[in-house]
Write a structure and sequence with these properties.
binds 2-oxoglutaric acid; single chain; 35% strand; Jelly Rolls; 4 helices; 12 strands; globular; alpha+beta
Length: 179
């Protein structure tokens, strides 16, 4: 097990974060099937947290965020899964992201908009804990080792306002096979 957390946090990664937040808030059609938060997927088809999202063209505003994340990651992204946390009561439980279908060497990028929320990490044996505050306009890159050895979660945050995350993954050739 690697205790090293394979993450890179870039504050102020998105110069147009305010406009992107407005776009995500006003223009996106959200799926409200889960109690914990609302979701929307763009780009390659993706099955996530019990939901199946078909392929859907990536709007220019989201493609622009993907392009910035790609610049930082050093590879492209072809799916964007957005999460909308209306209040601090909206959460994401501890989990690891599956690399099923993802390019193995790729990273997962999380772009954050709106209220800052804490992202908690803990090792699978619960002995080691880390926390990172995801600020408006930031991008966090998570390497694959993070998913092997650590779980992560967005816990409750009493009093927090609206936050939207846009998470990016790279399916590559798998996306064409699954489409
Ligand atoms: O909304 C977030 O920042 C958390 C995203 C996340 O944990 C995930 O996509 O696996």
């Amino acid at each position: 097990m690697t205790l090293h957390l394979a993450i890179r946090y870039i504050p102020d990664a998105l110069p147009d974060a305010a406009a992107a937040f407005m776009y995500l808030t006003r223009e996106v059609s959200w799926r409200e099937a889960m109690r914990a938060r609302a979701t929307a997927s763009f780009g390659a088809p993706y099955n996530y947290s019990g939901q199946r999202y078909p392929a859907c063209p990536m709007p220019a505003q989201i493609a622009a965020i993907a392009a910035r994340a790609a610049e930082l990651a050093g590879h492209p992204f072809d799916n964007c899964l957005c999460n909308r946390y209306d209040t601090g009561e909206n959460t994401m439980g501890f989990h690891a992201d599956s690399y099923d279908g993802l390019v193995p060497s790729s990273v997962i990028a999380i772009a954050s908009f709106g209220a800052p929320r804490e992202l908690l990490f803990r090792t699978r044996d619960k002995r080691h804990h880390r926390a990172i505050l995801l600020a408006h306009g930031s991008i966090l890159l998570m390497g694959r080792a993070t998913q092997d050895d650590w779980l992560h979660a967005i816990p409750r945050a009493p009093g927090a306002g609206l936050r939207i995350s846009a998470t990016f993954r790279h399916f590559g050739d798998h996306a064409r096979i699954r489409a």
